[in-house]
């Protein structure tokens, strides 16, 4: 029993650190402090559990950056350099304010079509979703401040440039965010297998926000309770679920169909 335990420890400490692009990661107390002062958007901020970082904590509070307290082993898996107990990742984009996005959409005379991603953590899934959302005419993506994919160079590449055009809003509390959307006249549609209602029965021609859930366990119960409608995609094969980026495309383009082709035959796109 003792040998097996030692084997686990040795393997743990010799595990190769995950590779990150150097321009996305900042480490060390002074460097992290300065990046927080710079006004750049931060995707992740890790501080070692046992450490005291009063200035970083104050700046993070002022900037509404979520701090994750982690064991030193996690920091050492990220980098073997002298991190001094503090590591952060700089976002490749600037986050938009949701209220500005919604007001802007209404002022342009457009019908809101927003996407809420509940704990989608795979970077390439996120990039693919952003690409589809931009192509479908969605005006914004909402993600949680904690438990979302890093918006890094991989996400930018997978989105094929869509993240340069599509606003991303990072919200501390998705429950409060959904309530705000509903107060703004936006219908909430949750895409989940926990319903008998098919996607095609839901009217998404008006102002709509679509929630897509985590790759592991779908949409959280708290968000499901706040949704105006639950909708499922019919599956007729043997596999029980779709990849979340594929499912998002199905749902978004049903909204597009309803908005553009409601009572008319769709035009033929000769360039397709």
Description:
β6 (140-144), α7 and β7 (168-171) form a beta-alpha-beta unit. The N and C termini lie far apart (63 Å). This protein is of the alpha/beta class. α2 (29-37) packs parallel to α3 (54-63). It has helices at residues 2-14, 29-37, 54-63, 72-78, 98-107, 123-135, 153-158, 174-183, 221-226, 244-260; strands spanning 25-27, 42-48, 68-70, 86-90, 113-117, 140-144, 168-171, 187-191, 208-212, 229-231. A 6-stranded parallel β-sheet has the order 7-6-5-9-8-10, with helices on both faces. The protein is built from 10 helices and 10 strands. The chain has 2 domains: 2-90, 60s Ribosomal Protein L30, Chain: A (2-Layer Sandwich); 98-260, Alpha/beta knot (3-Layer(aba) Sandwich), CATH 3.40.1280.
Concise account of the structure shown:
This protein is of the alpha/beta class. It contains ten helices and ten strands. The chain is globular, with a radius of gyration of 21 Å.
Question: How is the biggest beta sheet arranged?
Answer: 6 strands, parallel
Assigned CATH superfamily of the largest domain: SPOUT methyltransferase, trefoil knot domain
The shape is globular
Q: What low-confidence regions span 5 or more consecutive residues with pLDDT below 50?
A: 1-22
């Amino acid at each position: 029993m003792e040998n097996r335990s030692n084997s686990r420890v040795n393997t743990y400490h010799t595990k190769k650190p995950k590779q990150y692009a150097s321009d996305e990661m900042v480490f060390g107390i002074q460097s992290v402090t300065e990046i927080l002062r710079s006004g750049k958007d931060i995707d992740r901020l890790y501080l070692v559990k046992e450490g005291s970082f009063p200035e970083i904590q104050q700046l993070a509070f002022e900037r509404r950056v979520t701090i994750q307290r982690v064991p030193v082993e996690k920091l050492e898996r990220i980098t073997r350099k002298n991190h001094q107990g503090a590591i952060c990742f700089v976002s490749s984009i600037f986050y938009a304010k949701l209220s500005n996005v919604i007001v802007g959409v209404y002022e342009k005379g457009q019908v809101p079509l927003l996407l809420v991603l509940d704990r989608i953590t795979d970077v390439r899934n996120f990039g693919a979703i952003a690409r589809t959302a931009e192509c479908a005419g969605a005006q914004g993506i909402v993600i949680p401040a904690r438990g979302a994919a890093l918006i890094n160079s991989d996400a930018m590449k997978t989105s094929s440039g869509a993240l340069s055009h599509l606003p991303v809003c990072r919200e501390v509390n998705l429950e409060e965010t959904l309530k705000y959307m509903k107060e703004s006249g936006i219908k909430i549609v949750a895409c989940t297998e926990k319903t008998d209602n098919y996607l095609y029965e839901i009217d998404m021609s008006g102002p709509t926000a679509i929630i897509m859930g985590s790759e592991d366990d779908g949409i959280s119960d708290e968000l499901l309770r706040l949704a105006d409608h639950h909708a499922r995609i019919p599956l007729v094969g043997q596999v029980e679920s779709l990849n979340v980026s594929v499912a998002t495309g199905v749902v978004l383009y049903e909204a597009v169909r309803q908005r553009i082709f409601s009572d008319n035959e769709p035009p033929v796109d000769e360039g397709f």
